[in-house]
Amino acid sequence: MLHSMSTSVEPASDRSAAEVNEEIRALWLRSGGTLSGEQRKEYQRLVLEWAAAAPQSQRAA
Fold first, then answer.
1. Quick one: pLDDT at residue 12?
2. Within 13 A of 9's CA, how many CA atoms are on the CB side?
3. Would you place residue 56 in the very low, low, confident or very high pLDDT band (cuts 50, 70, 90)?
4. What is the pTM of this model?
5. Which of 28, 36, 48, 58 could serve as 54's disulfide partner, Cβ 3.0–4.6 Å?
6. In angstroms, rounded to a whole number, what is the distance separating the alpha carbons of residues 14 and 4?
7. Residue 20: is it exposed, middle or buried by C-beta count within 10 angstroms (0-12/13-18/19+)?
8. Which residues of 36-57 are buried (b: 16+ CB within 10 A; e: fewer)?
9. How many alpha carbons fall within 13 Å on the CB side of residue 10?
10. Per-residue model confidence as pLDDT tens digits over 3-31
């Protein structure tokens, strides 16, 4: 099953990419590796926030 991510533009984050990454990792740990529907929405929002905060070199990695 494929899941699409929203392409809506989120406002720029005041948090660093590292801070957002820590929240993403915590979300995965809390979920036990399987995200519920609500957790998937949160994950998608966090990934977009991370991408906006990450330097260009990190995004290409």
1. 54
2. 2
3. confident
4. 0.69
5. 58
6. 25
7. buried
8. eeeeeebbbebebbbebbbeee
9. 17
10. 555 555 455 558 999 999 999 999 999 99
> For tokens 């998608």, what's the residue?
44
Indicate the residue type of 18: A
What are the structure tokens assigned to 50, written together?
């991370």
Nearest-angstrom CA–CA distance, 27 and 7: 21
Nearest C-alpha neighbor of 9 from the set 40, 45, 33: 45
Place of tokens 């005041």: 14
Q: What's the token pair of residue 19?
A: 């801070």
